[in-house]
Structure prediction request, 299 residues.
Amino acid sequence: MNLFYDRSRFRNRSDPLPIFRTLFPLLLLPALAPATTAPAGGAPPENCLQTVFEESFDQPWQQLLKRWKTSYVWGNDSVINNELQYYLQPDRDGASPFSTRDGILTIVAQPVTPQLKKRIPAGRQYTSGLMTTERHFALKYGRFEIRAKLPPGRGLWPAFWMLPAFDRWPEGVDILPEIDIMEFLGHDRKTYHTTVHSNQSGSLRSDSSRHRPGPDLTKEFHDYAVEWDEREIRWYFDDRLLSRKPTPRDLHRPMYLLINLAVGGNWPGKPDKHTRFPARLQIDHVRIRKFSTACDKGD
Prediction:
């Protein structure tokens, strides 16, 4: 998502939010699954993976809020990346960008309605949705995957990504590392991006790859996945390996998932006259699997 927990961005601003150190500590995550490592030699076979988190979206969207959070750890009021959307929190804002039907979750981005204009921060031109497992689930190493159909249109920026889970902010760290499993710019329908962001050298470094796997990604559902272990990170499209990179030194703790549909921002630019609203990010399922200890032993 090209978003980092950079506390310096929030210093000396008129924003009412305090700096991040005040926002922490968080509750300890109740579902930090034990870590194992993928077998040497690359991706593990199917029987070496054990599902530890799965969301099939076959319940009303209201039930999802038991396992998914609809705000960043610092809240949704601050503008990041010069994005134009406000992420609605249904229990606070009285409106929802989420719906479920036939096992599909839809996140809708659209222009701010007159009813919401006075209830959300000034200057936001669109509403949209964000979901995270921040307080409910995190895992150290494994396979993280989503099956999704992406929205077309300039200025649309859906993403599926991971951030480290902490019970409190680490001393001396301004920026946390990040794994981007899928980022998509709606005007480039056959391309998506994967990135690992690291602060292991003391300054931010981003190692990105641009993928053109073939199809128009807005026409059908496709699988986007990453396998992450102590040695390397591997990105997959429809179970086809696309790229692999060494695991940075600062990416060896449990991570949680984020899904969002941003509008505008420094990277995608603003929507234009051809961008159709409401825009819809559709998700068939999310699945997290850990590497089996039996495979570690060569069984």
The helical segments are 20-23, 61-64, 90-93, 114-117, 293-296. The chain has one domain: 7-296. Residues 4-42 have pLDDT under 50 and may be disordered.
